[in-house]
UniProtKB/TrEMBL annotation:
It comes from the Eukaryota. Keywords: Cell membrane, Glycosyltransferase, Membrane, Transferase, Transmembrane, Transmembrane helix. Coiled coil: none annotated. It is found in: Cell membrane. One of its GO terms (cellular component) is plasma membrane. The keyword ATP-binding does not apply. GO terms for molecular function: hyaluronan synthase activity. PANTHER family: HYALURONAN SYNTHASE (PTHR22913), MANNURONAN SYNTHASE (PTHR22913:SF12). The chain crosses the membrane at residues 76-96, 506-525, 537-564, 585-604, 610-627. Residues 1-24 are annotated as: Disordered. It comes from Gloeophyllum trabeum (strain ATCC 11539 / FP-39264 / Madison 617) (Brown rot fungus). Residues 10-21 have a biased composition (Acidic residues). This is Glycosyltransferase family 2 protein.
């Protein structure tokens, strides 16, 4: 064939000219397949819709009458002092190498002597089946499920599981975080899960959360209160006292949002539909949750409780029954959670290890917290709240900021924190179960763990008043979890870079994995599943992935613009740039190199042989694995460019030879 200028080309060259180059994002630009975490601009979310005055002078839900918690100053001071003393004694004993039992080089120290108290068995009190005589009137509960560009199959499976609950559900409220075409596909999928006469799709041009925030700060400004000083902020943090004008501003903003909500819900008869799905401008998960809570409590009048779940979660049929039984078992109980399991544990060995970690996290750690009535995080995939308690903290919850920035993750932990800060109890029951998704790939898992760790470090001491209200266990466990990563890291660095004898790391590792083995045996006995023996392997995941991610999260807790997970299959397929990958896992590279050089230094110093310095190169192997797909993508692109240039030169040489 010939080109337009008459030059001859081969069929291979012509096919190559038409070939599309492989897509590779620019290496040093932010290209990240994650949910964009941006604060919505007020100018894009205000509304001029005429609004009618809402009639809710009295809340349409049941307000729990309970005695207001009182802090006994002397008792609280003693309790907190003893709690801190326990933690300090562990640290001092560990730092001074105090030993309880000594046998040669082997010793058992005081650190990590606190053992969890086991699974708290919570009985099902009111299942409501085969009732003889007068029919039992069950409390009302609605379900709020939010998502962002979820896989359609997982989304519909989630909705079907919510409709299959044994406990009667008043309304199922879905909120899609976004109103672009890709988001509206998720809203359309919601309609496929419900009969046509039972579902309604509502498109909100505004974010109710931003309406609230705009009106709140407008009222604060109108009231003329000056911004608190740093000392005043400290006092508000320590005493949990509201800022001047906060209550008035809240009432003004609350009424503004309710007027809009009442107008829309009345015109469109929202309460007539079992399933209602809202699409709204993209913010992030907290904005979507705010919409679902406001709609459920006021527009739909859910009197007693609201269940939260995620768009990729399958909820077991008896889950709501067991959660409601626990929630209604005591007026002091304001929120409860259940056992979150993993449905994709067969996707990879990493997912399997995560499923084992989930079992221990819920059936040991949260069960222990529940025994003291202070579960620190009511999990997003399965959290149930009393409606009145939820509404009492919703305003401050949506206003939360950290270091001058809007918080974009840790929504469930902060909500639980606010419940605890009022002196209310939170609980856990293993009888309520759900299956959720976990990352099957290592990089995505690290992103998830970093995000969760950031929310923990941010929330750990957000409400000092909670420690005064609740059992001393809350203070001890929170402080221990906060300090443990730092202590473990310092121990490892000291062992490698201040070597003493070669058996010390062996003894230390044996002790660590011995404790993991004991926990594994406990899991095998409880579940009668030998697979729990593998839990000891999770120690490697913690040491090489989670531990450095916790430290990284602690020092970057103020960064809220990345760290989220992509949801849909199309987003999973999007490549990631070198720069974006480094922002997520660069700390792992630092950790691996520190360990490999430390190992080389330790071995060379212990055995007095410089050849062991070559062990410092071991860190290159896991580093390559972390960047493998990015390196392959870049290699394919530059191979394409080189081949194109080579063929161009070859064609040019061929043309010169013909002319000559």
């Amino acid at each position: 064939s010939r080109t337009s200028d008459g030059e001859s080309t081969t069929l291979e060259d012509e096919q190559f000219d038409d070939e599309e180059p492989p897509y590779v994002p620019p290496a040093f630009e932010i290209v990240d397949p994650a949910i964009p975490m941006v604060e919505p601009e007020p100018a894009m979310t205000t509304t001029e819709v005429p609004q009618a005055s809402h009639p809710w002078t009295v809340p349409p839900f049941n307000v729990v009458e309970r005695p207001k918690p009182v802090i006994h100053k002397v008792r609280a001071a003693i309790k907190i002092t003893l709690s801190v003393a326990v933690v300090l004694s562990l640290l001092v004993g560990y730092g001074l190498k105090v030993k309880i039992i000594t046998f040669g080089r082997f010793s058992f120290g005081m650190y990590a002597s606190n053992m969890t108290k086991g699974v708290q068995q919570l009985k099902d009190k009111a299942e409501g089946k085969d009732i003889q005589g007068e029919e039992l009137k069950l409390p009302e509960v609605s379900i709020a499920v939010v998502g962002y560009r979820e896989d359609e199959e997982a989304w519909i499976a989630c909705l079907k599981s919510l409709q299959a609950q044994e406990f009667p559900i008043k309304h199922i409220i879905g909120v899609v975080d976004g109103n672009d075409p890709a988001d509206l596909d998720m809203a359309d999928a919601f309609g496929k899960a419900f009969p046509e006469d039972q579902r309604l799709i509502v498109h909100l041009p505004v974010l109710l959360s931003v309406m609230y925030k705009e009106k709140y700060w407008e009222a604060i400004k109108t009231l003329g209160y000056a911004n608190p000083t740093r000392w005043q902020y400290f006092k508000m943090w320590f005493t949990q006292a509201p800022r001047p004008g906060q209550e008035v501003a809240h009432e003004v903003a609350w009424s503004h949002v309710l007027d809009y909500l009442y107008t829309r819900s009345t015109i469109e008869n929202w309460s007539q539909y079992k399933g209602i799905c809202f699409s709204q401008p993209h913010g992030h998960k907290r904005h979507a949750m705010f919409t679902s809570f406001m709609v459920g409590a006021y527009a739909l009048g859910t009197k007693d409780a609201m269940l939260t779940t995620d768009s990729d979660t399958y909820v077991y049929p008896n889950a709501v029954t067991n959660l409601m039984s626990l929630l209604m078992s005591s007026e002091k109980m304001a929120g409860v959670t259940g056992d979150v399991r993993i449905w994709n544990k067969k996707d990879s060995f990493l997912a399997l290890m995560s499923s084992l970690r989930y079992w221990f996290a819920f059936n040991v750690e949260r069960a222990c917290q529940s025994a003291f009535g202070c579960v620190g995080c009511l999990s997003g995939p399965l959290g149930l709240y009393r409606t009145s308690d939820l509404m009492s903290v919703l305003g401050p919850w949506i206003l939360q900021s950290f270091l001058g920035k809007e918080t974009t993750f840790g929504d469930d932990r902060h909500l639980s924190n606010r419940i605890l800060s009022l002196g209310h109890k939170t609980g856990y029951t293993h009888l309520a179960m759900c299956d959720s998704d976990t990352p099957a790939g290592y990089v995505r898992w690290v992103k998830q763990q970093t995000r969760w760790s950031k929310s923990f470090f941010r929330e750990a001491f957000w409400f000092p008043k909670s420690f005064a209200y609740h059992d001393a266990w809350l203070t001890v466990e929170t402080t221990k979890q906060f300090l443990y990563p730092m202590i473990l890291t310092a121990t490892v660095i000291q062992m490698f870079y201040r070597p003493s004898y070669w058996t010390r790391p062996v003894i230390w590792l044996s002790t660590m994995f011995g404790v993991a083995l004991i926990k594994s045996v406990y899991g095998v006995i409880c579940m009668r599943d030998p697979m729990h023996f593998l839990f000891g392997v999770y120690g490697f995941m913690y040491f090489f992935g989670l531990l450095p991610s916790k430290l990284f999260a602690c020092f970057t807790v103020g960064i809220t613009t990345w760290g989220t997970s992509a949801r849909s299959k199309s987003e999973f397929a999007r490549p990631e740039s070198l720069y974006s990958r480094t922002t997520h896992i660069g700390h792992l590279v630092t950790w691996y190199m520190a360990l490999s050089f430390g190992l080389g230094y330790f071995m060379a110093s212990t055995f007095h042989n410089p050849i062991f310095w070559s062990l410092g190169a071991i860190g290159i192997l896991p580093t390559y694995q972390l960047y493998h797909d990015v390196i392959v993508g870049e290699s394919k692109y530059w191979f394409f460019v080189y081949r194109k240039r080579y063929r161009a030169r070859r064609a040019k040489v061929a043309d010169v030879e013909k002319v000559s």
